[in-house]
Amino acid sequence: MKVSALAESTDIDRTSTYRLVSTLESMGYVLRRGEDGAVSLTSKMANIADGFRDDDLIAQAITPYIHELTHIVLWPSDFATFSEGAVTVQVTTHKLSPMSVHRAVVGRHHSLFRSALGRAMLSVMSQKEIDTASVVAQLEAPNSQYIWDKKTIRKLIGDVRKAGYASSVGESEINISAIALPLRVGRVVGAVNIVFFRSAMTPQIAADRYLEPLKACVRRVKKALSA
Asked: What is the number of structural domains in the chain?
């Protein structure tokens, strides 16, 4: 949540809210994201509250690893989770990448079925999780021109599992392609992608060049989250 939204929801003036957030940040209770200035809770907050969000802690844990990934591959990378029927970007490196034309990416929603991030998550879900996620996603997008029946979804997941990675070509954005891997640590945590211009290469070429660094990034994140 951004500080301005926090001020509005708490009915505290912005100056006081910024001061309170700065104090909490200096004490290690909150973290301000560099991408958009949004405020999230740290694990230290667990000492005084039980209601902190796992997504905030996971985003903090993954940030240094996808930053390192972008330094290696140059193309931007996103980490996203699935909640309330949408794949939502939680962390991005678009500002760090010389290959990106986007900046405001955090909070952007993608389709569970048409994005590489969503397809990656589906590929490691149990059948019960797939059925539940599919119903929720389609209820949240009732006006979609695409109908995703069980047969189509099974084929989609089968293709991802066979390839060893998820991909999309011009489906989230017409000129953008991506490859992605899921992140599962006991449960489906989310997915990490590498985004590139559709005209630059095919997903297969991207996988040939960048899948190993992407796998290494996911392994390191899993290790950090399991510690």
From this structure: 2
